[in-house]
Every structure is written in structure tokens, then in C-alpha cells.
Design goal:
Layout: E1 2-9, E2 14-19, H1 22-30, E3 43-51, H2 54-65, H3 67-77
Antiparallel strand pairs: 1-2, 1-3
Length: about 80
């Protein structure tokens, strides 16, 4: 299985990614090993979806990073 996930940190910053190991990926983000998320620790998963194929997860990740996806995230998780 492949996953897309949305992380949020204590400052309200959002990060969107995809992986085949959701828990392991969160651990790497929170250990400071990921350059894009090493500041603003800790991160928590606020949303995830699973997919059979990596290409499906990558397509969804790209959609969430676009304008409509960002708006959907704001509506769902910034209230």
C-alpha cells in the first residue's frame, strides 16, 4: 500500500507527502532527518489516504499541493 498524508506542526504549518510506510515516515519527520520538516517539530498526521499503486498516491499528492487541494485542506483542518 501507498499513502498520502498531511502533517501539521504546533505552529499550524502544513506538509503534504506520500510514502509506503506511514509510521516510519512520521518518525523520520519528527527525528529531524527530513530537511523540509526539521524545523517546527513535532509534526502529527492529521489526514491520510491509502492507494494500491504509487502512481495513484503521487497523483493525489500533486492534487492536494495545487490550489484547489490547498483550499480543501484549509477548509477541513484550519478551523
Amino acid at each position: 500500500m501507498f499513502y498520502i498524508y498531511i502533517l501539521k506542526n504546533i505552529n499550524g504549518k502544513i506538509y503534504i507527502g506520500q510514502t509506503n510506510n506511514l509510521i516510519g515516515r512520521l518518525k523520520r519527520h519528527n527525528s529531524g532527518l527530513t530537511k523540509s520538516t526539521k524545523f517546527g517539530l513535532p509534526w502529527k498526521i492529521i489526514y491520510s489516504e491509502s492507494f494500491e499503486k504509487r502512481s495513484e498516491a503521487m497523483r493525489r499528492e500533486k492534487g492536494l499541493k495545487g490550489g484547489q487541494g490547498r483550499e480543501w485542506i484549509k477548509e477541513q483542518f484550519n478551523s
